[in-house]
Design goal:
The structure is a single chain. The relative contact order is 0.18. The two termini are 21 Å apart. With 123 residues, the chain is mainly α. The protein has one domain. Helix 1 runs antiparallel to helix 4, helix 2 runs parallel beside helix 4 and helix 3 packs across helix 4. It contains four helices and no strands.
Length: 123
């Protein structure tokens, strides 16, 4: 098991990666090509940092299923995107959603390790 200090560093890095992604989407959503490139760079950076089987699985499953669900929701009028490019969703969406899944998986594992280390459980 990792040292407690390393777990907290991991948690900070995961929150930072998530924050950068959220800020990028919030600021660049009007420019699909630029945001696609930025999301791709962020995705590749996340996969360089975190690339075990679970990480790649989280990324792929969330990117594919999330994008399919979004396309269905948009098709049936549940909501719509202000700047869609394909099937009613922006081209950067699968990368951003998959990267969020990857980071979420990492966050869940790190938080679980912190809880186990403290023997306190989730609540």
């Amino acid at each position: 098991m990792k040292h407690p200090r390393q777990l907290w560093k991991d948690l900070a890095m995961e929150f930072a990666a998530f924050s950068v992604l959220v800020i990028s989407v919030s600021l660049l959503w009007r420019n699909n090509p630029l945001l696609f490139v930025v999301a791709l760079v962020e995705c590749l950076a996340a996969l360089i940092l975190w690339h075990d089987r679970l990480d790649v699985s989280f990324f792929l499953i969330i990117a594919v299923l999330g994008s399919l669900a979004e396309a269905v929701f948009v098709h049936f009028g549940v909501w719509r995107y202000a700047n869609p490019t394909f099937l009613g969703i922006p081209i950067w969406f699968p990368l951003a959603f998959g990267t969020t899944g990857l980071i979420g998986g990492r966050l869940a594992r790190t938080i679980t390790q912190i809880w186990e280390r403290n023997n306190s459980g989730p609540l």
